[in-house]
C-alpha cells in the first residue's frame, strides 16, 4: 500500500447485482488509485464480488451479513464489521443498503472512523409494509443518517424527505447517479441476439423481479390491451424471487404468448435498441440506472409516479388501466437520445464528501 493514500471501505449487504451494487462497483473501480486505497465488504457473494476481484479491488466477506433481519446473525454481523474496521482502519466508511448501513455506521462510530458516508438508495420506509414496520425502518434509517457525517440520496424526492427528518437535514446531499456513454447493439443485431421475432411494438422492462418493481401491474396492462385487440409484446429482462409467480400470472391472464421472461441478461442495456418502449411500472423506486440507459438509447419511456423524475411520461402507480393507455400511446412518440448525468460528475461530487 502506498503511503499517503486515503483508505476507503465500502460496505453493502449483498454482493449480487442491482442498482446499489452497481453504484458501489462504479465508485470503487473509478476512484483514482494514486489517491485512494479501496476495499469492499459484503455479506452474500455474487456478481459484484466477482467483478471487483477481476479489477483487483480488495474484498472482505462477512458471512453473517444478510438482508433478512435475524437477531443472532445481526449481532454476529455487527461484531464482524467492528473487527474488520479495527483491522483495516479506513479513513472513510461508505455504507450502502439498510442493514449493512445501520450496523456499519454504529460500528464506525465506536472505532472513531474519520468519515462515515451513507448512501440511501431510496428510503426503505417508503416500501409497502405495515405501519409498524415502516415506523421501525424509519427509525433505523434516521439513526443511520444521524450516525453518519453525510447522507447521499440519489433522487430529489428522497432529498426532500431527508431534509424534513429531524436533526439530519443538513447532512443530506442529492448526488444523482451517473453513467458512462453506453455501447448499444444495432436494433436487428440486438433482436437477433435475444431471439426476438419481428413484431411491434416491443416493450421492455429491465429489473429485478421483486414486488417493488410492479411487474404484475404491467402484465395486467398487457392483458387489458389484449382484450381491446391492441397487440403488444412485453419483454422482461431480469430474474428474482417472483419469477415463478409472475410467469403463472401471465398464463392465468392468457398473455403468456405476449409476455416474455428473458431471465438475467448480462450487460442488458446494450440490447435496448431492440425495443420500442422502455417501461418501469415500479411501486417504489428512486432514480434507477436503467432509466438513464433508456434515455441514452433514445427510447420513449413510461414510468409510474413512484419514479423520481420529471424527464419522462408518468402514470399513477398500481393503476393497470393507466399503464395500458400509456403503453398504447407512447410507442408513437419520437425522442432524442441523451445522457443527463455522467459518471464523472457523480464521482467528483461524492469525493467532495470524503
Please tell me about this protein's structure.
- The chain is 38% helix and 19% strand.
- It is an alpha/beta fold.
- It folds into two domains: 6-179 and 342-351, Rossmann fold (3-Layer(aba) Sandwich), CATH 3.40.50.2000; 187-330, Glycogen Phosphorylase B (Rossmann fold, 3-Layer(aba) Sandwich).
- The protein has a seven-stranded parallel beta sheet with strand order 3-2-1-4-5-6-7, with helices on both faces. A six-stranded parallel beta sheet has the order 10-9-8-11-12-13, sandwiched between helices.
- Helix 3 packs across helix 4, helix 4 (98-110) runs parallel beside helix 5 and helix 8 crosses helix 11 (320-330).
- The two termini are 19 Å apart.
- The model has no long low-confidence stretch (mean pLDDT 93).
Which band does the percent of strand residues land in?
15-25%
Cα-based radius of gyration, to the nearest Å: 21 Å
Taken from the alpha-carbon principal axes, the silhouette is globular
Q: Roughly how many Å apart are the termini? A: 19 Å
Largest sheet: 7 strands, parallel
How are the strands ordered across the major sheet? 3-2-1-4-5-6-7
CATH topology of the largest domain: Rossmann fold
CATH architecture group name of the largest domain: 3-Layer(aba) Sandwich
CATH superfamily of the largest domain: Glycogen Phosphorylase B
Helix/strand class:
alpha/beta
Order of helices and strands: EHEHEHEHEHEHEHEHEHEEHEEHH
Question: How many strands in all?
Answer: 13
Query: If you average the pLDDT, what whole number results?
Result: 93
Counted up, domains total: 2
Task: Report low-confidence residues grouped into runs of 5 or more.
Answer: none
Amino acid at each position: 500500500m502506498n503511503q499517503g493514500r486515503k483508505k476507503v471501505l465500502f460496505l453493502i449487504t449483498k454482493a449480487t447485482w442491482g442498482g446499489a451494487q452497481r453504484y458501489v462497483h462504479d465508485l470503487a473501480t473509478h476512484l483514482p488509485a494514486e489517491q485512494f486505497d479501496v476495499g469492499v465488504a459484503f455479506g452474500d457473494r455474487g456478481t459484484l464480488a466477482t467483478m471487483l476481484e477481476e479489477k483487483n479491488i480488495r474484498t472482505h466477506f462477512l458471512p453473517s451479513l444478510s438482508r433478512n433481519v435475524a437477531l443472532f446473525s445481526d449481532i454476529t454481523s455487527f461484531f464482524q464489521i467492528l473487527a474488520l474496521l479495527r483491522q483495516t482502519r479506513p479513513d472513510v466508511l461508505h455504507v450502502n443498503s439498510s442493514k449493512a448501513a445501520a450496523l456499519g455506521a454504529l460500528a464506525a462510530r465506536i472505532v472513531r472512523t474519520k468519515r462515515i458516508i451513507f448512501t440511501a438508495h431510496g428510503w426503505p420506509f417508503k416500501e409497502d409494509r405495515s405501519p409498524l414496520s415502516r415506523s421501525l425502518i424509519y427509525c433505523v434509517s434516521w439513526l443511520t443518517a444521524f450516525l453518519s457525517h453525510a447522507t447521499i440520496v440519489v433522487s430529489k424526492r428522497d432529498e426532500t424527505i431527508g431534509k424534513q427528518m429531524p436533526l439530519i437535514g443538513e447532512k443530506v446531499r442529492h448526488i444523482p447517479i451517473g453513467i458512462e456513454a453506453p455501447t448499444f447493439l444495432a436494433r436487428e443485431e440486438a433482436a437477433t441476439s435475444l431471439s426476438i421475432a419481428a413484431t411491434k411494438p416491443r416493450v421492455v422492462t429491465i429489473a429485478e423481479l421483486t414486488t417493488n418493481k410492479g411487474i404484475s401491474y404491467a402484465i395486467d396492462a398487457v392483458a387489458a390491451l389484449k382484450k381491446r385487440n391492441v397487440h403488444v409484446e412485453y419483454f422482461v429482462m431480469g430474474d428474482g424471487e417472483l419469477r415463478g409467480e409472475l410467469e403463472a400470472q401471465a398464463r392465468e391472464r392468457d398473455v403468456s404468448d405476449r409476455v416474455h421472461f428473458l431471465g438475467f441478461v448480462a450487460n442488458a442495456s446494450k440490447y435496448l435498441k431492440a425495443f420500442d418502449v422502455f417501461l418501469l411500472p415500479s411501486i417504489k423506486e428512486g432514480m434507477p440506472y436503467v432509466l438513464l440507459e433508456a434515455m441514452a438509447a433514445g427510447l420513449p419511456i413510461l414510468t409510474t409516479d413512484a419514479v423520481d423524475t420529471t424527464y419522462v411520461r408518468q402514470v399513477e402507480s398500481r393503476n393497470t388501466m393507466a399503464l395500458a393507455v400509456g403503453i398504447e400511446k407512447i410507442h408513437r412518440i419520437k425522442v432524442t437520445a441523451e445522457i443527463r448525468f455522467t459518471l464523472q460528475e457523480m464521482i467528483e461530487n461524492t469525493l467532495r464528501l470524503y
